[in-house]
Write a structure and sequence with these properties.
Blueprint (H helix, E strand, L loop, with lengths): L15 E4 L5 H14 L1 H4 L3 E5 L10 H9 L4 E6 L3 H9 L3 E3 L14 E5 L8 E4 L2 E5 L8 E4 L3 E7 L2 E4 L9 E6 L3 E4 L2 E4 H5 L7 E6 L2 E6 L3
Parallel strand pairs: 1-2, 2-3, 3-4, 5-7, 6-8, 7-9, 8-10, 9-11, 10-12
Antiparallel strand pairs: 11-14, 12-13, 14-15
Length: about 220
């Protein structure tokens, strides 16, 4: 049978959420430039949803905000938790209006499997565990990325980037025999190497969320 020219299929993609908490776009731009300087590869080219809940009915031009973000190579695909005026602007700009977990009925986390990798992850490699925890028996080198919708366990040195809870699960954790990561992230909250080293360096530890901030617990060897 000939393949159809157009197919519509349900799938899932990881979307980061950028919270805009100030209506002064000059302030937003300065803060954004600071964050991008800390982790320049974390957001660039990735689809983002803007959370506008803090702005309520504050009259800002969404088109100007979108242009400001586009200039910094941020790809804005929609908004969430926005007032009706913002939703109208978004539709005029061709942006999606996304219902958040607070606005929709609570979704249950699907049954999670475990993806096991028995090798070192080298620079330039990326491993993704969809709807699963990720267990790595080996080291994660500088320039490598390991991503999981669930938790990440590295039985070796973690020197690259590790992003757990990529699907939004705030209960996910990152555990490594030696935490030396370039970047760690749980459900979108992240630390770069400098933040991590203030709490833990080349030690066995567990990175998790405490409220809306990351924390790390040193584990016994």
């Amino acid at each position: 049978m000939a393949k159809q020219n157009l197919e519509l299929k349900a799938t899932s993609f990881t979307l980061s959420v950028l919270y805009i908490n100030n209506s002064n776009l000059d302030v937003v731009a300065l803060e954004l430039d600071k964050k991008l300087a800390e982790a320049p590869q974390f957001f660039l080219g990735a689809p983002l949803i803007l959370n506008l809940s803090a702005l309520d009915d504050t009259p800002i031009d969404l088109a100007v905000l979108k242009a400001l973000l586009n200039q910094r190579q941020l790809v804005i695909v929609g908004i969430t938790e926005a007032s009706i005026p913002f939703s109208v602007q978004a539709k005029d700009l061709g942006l999606a209006v996304v219902r958040s977990g607070k606005q929709a009925t609570a979704a249950t986390i699907p049954p999670r499997g475990t993806k096991i990798v028995k090798q070192n992850i080298r620079s330039g490699q990326q491993i993704y565990a969809k709807d699963a925890d990720l267990v790595i028996f080996g080291a994660v080198g500088n320039g490598a990325e390991v991503i999981a919708d669930g938790s990440i366990h590295v039985y070796g040195a973690l020197r690259g980037k590790a992003m757990a809870g990529a699907g939004g699960d705030t209960q996910s954790v990152i555990i490594a025999s030696s935490l030396e990561a370039e970047l760690v992230s749980v459900a979108g909250q992240y630390w770069i190497a400098e933040n991590l080293q203030q709490h833990c360096h080349a030690q066995r530890g567990c990175v998790r969320l405490d409220g809306e901030s990351l924390t790390v617990e040193i584990l016994p060897q």
